[in-house]
């Protein structure tokens, strides 16, 4: 029996997981969980300084997400190897969600970014430098550790506490604090892929244009910029929040959104006219919905338009895809 177990641990994670799962009489979900737990032990041997890509490259998306969530909680070796998550209050303040739910949202965006890069540029594994613009506490950049050497992964954010958290929990990627206004210290034409989740969803129009010009400066020719913005449906959602009796108990970020787009009808009309729709909350920060018409007229002079995704099944925010 011991030799059988040792043999199983030496097998590659995906094929092993499938074989064990196929032989278990329990439910499919339980089978996968047991298979993953056995398979991950093989991936963690031996314990050395190898980066995550050398251990996990080629495993399935489902297994990789399990490793970053339940597997992380179960295996102390994974906790030493992979980034952690901040307190629930921090997670809620950023996105209104916490735990595996908020990681799943980040993971699905990572999958979308990866798919878009493969479609419009080439294999993700051949990508040079990747920039997480507005990385927050690093919930998305961690997933790229399966695909790329960490020397290619960089996150920037103006929040000093979040950059400190990223540096203290993610020993692989590079993190730098940036100002709320450009420029950055990044070299010209040094980045192959830039993604910005829920950053252009919050910037005043002049600031957003400054950052668009700066990201164009650091993007390499042929490189991809993928940024999200609030969808049209977010405008009536804000109106519904104002009438929600649960509002006082919701996170501060959601309560702030209840103040956005106070004239619902006019905001919707402006959106449909292709105008920049923005409500200021504090300093240079608020809620913003950028329609496709605006992107075509104001972003296209800077970068080549590739796609505008308005599909909640793919991303809860609209996705702007541009190429240099």
Structure description:
This protein is an alpha/beta fold. The chain folds into two domains: about 1-80, no CATH class; about 90-230 and about 260-324, Rossmann fold. The protein has helices spanning about 1-10, 15-25, 30-45, 50-55, 60-75, 75-80, 90-95, 100-120, 160-170, 205-220, 235-240, 250-255, 265-270, 290-300, and strands at about 130-135, 155, 175, 190-195, 220-230, 275-280, 285-290, 305-310, 320-324. The protein has a seven-stranded mixed β-sheet with strand order 3-2-1-4-5-9-8, with helices on both faces. Strands 6-7 form a two-stranded antiparallel sheet. Helix 3 (about 30-45) crosses helix 5. It is globular.
Which stretches are low in confidence, meaning pLDDT under 50 for 5 or more residues running? 1-13, 16-27
Largest sheet: 7 strands, mixed
Query: H/E series, N to C?
Result: HHHHHHHHEEHEEHEHHHEEHEE
Q: In CATH terms, what is the fold-level topology of the largest domain?
A: Rossmann fold
User: In order across it, which strands form the biggest sheet?
Assistant: 3-2-1-4-5-9-8
Total domain count: 2
Write out the CATH superfamily name of the largest domain: Vaccinia Virus protein VP39
Task: Give the termini distance in whole angstroms.
Answer: 58 Å
How many helices? The count is: 14
Question: At CATH's second level, what is the architecture of the largest domain?
Answer: 3-Layer(aba) Sandwich
Given helix and strand content, the structural type is alpha/beta
Question: Helical proportion?
Answer: 40-55%
Q: What sort of overall outline do the alpha carbons produce when their principal axes are compared?
A: globular
If you compute it from the alpha carbons, what radius of gyration comes out, rounded to the nearest whole angstrom?
21 Å
Please identify the top-level CATH class of the largest domain: Alpha Beta
Mean pLDDT: 90
Percentage of residues in strands: 15-25%
Strand segment count: 9
């Amino acid at each position: 029996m011991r030799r059988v177990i040792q043999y199983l641990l030496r097998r590659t994670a995906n094929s092993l997981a499938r074989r064990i799962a196929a032989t278990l009489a329990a439910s499919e979900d339980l089978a996968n969980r047991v298979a993953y737990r056995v398979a991950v032990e093989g991936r963690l041997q031996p314990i050395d300084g190898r980066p995550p890509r050398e251990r996990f490259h080629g495993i399935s998306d489902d297994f990789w997400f399990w490793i970053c969530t339940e597997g992380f909680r179960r295996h102390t070796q994974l906790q030493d190897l992979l980034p952690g998550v901040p307190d629930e209050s921090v997670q809620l303040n950023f996105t209104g969600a916490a735990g595996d739910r908020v990681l799943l949202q980040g993971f699905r965006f990572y999958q979308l970014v990866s798919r878009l890069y493969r479609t419009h540029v080439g294999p993700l594994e051949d990508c040079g430098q990747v920039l997480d613009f507005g990385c927050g506490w690093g919930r998305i950049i961690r997933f790229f550790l399966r695909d790329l050497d960490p020397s290619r992964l960089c996150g920037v954010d103006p929040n000093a506490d979040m950059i400190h958290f990223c540096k203290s929990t993610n020993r692989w990627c590079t993190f730098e604090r940036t100002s709320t206004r450009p420029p950055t210290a990044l070299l010209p034409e040094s980045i192959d892929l830039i993604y910005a989740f829920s950053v252009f969803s919050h910037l005043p129009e002049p600031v957003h244009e400054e950052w668009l010009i700066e990201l164009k400066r650091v993007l390499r020719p042929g490189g991809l910029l993928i940024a999200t913005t609030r969808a049209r449906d977010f405008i009536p959602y804000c109106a519904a929040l104002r009438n929600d009796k649960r509002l006082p108990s919701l996170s501060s970020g959601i309560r702030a959104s209840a103040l956005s787009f106070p004239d619902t009808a006019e905001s919707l009309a402006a959106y449909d006219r292709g105008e920049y729709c923005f409500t200021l909350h504090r300093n240079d920060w608020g809620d913003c919905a950028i329609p496709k018409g605006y992107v075509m007229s104001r972003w296209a002079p800077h970068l080549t338009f590739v796609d505008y995704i308005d599909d909640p099944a793919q991303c809860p925010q609209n996705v702007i895809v541009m190429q240099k």
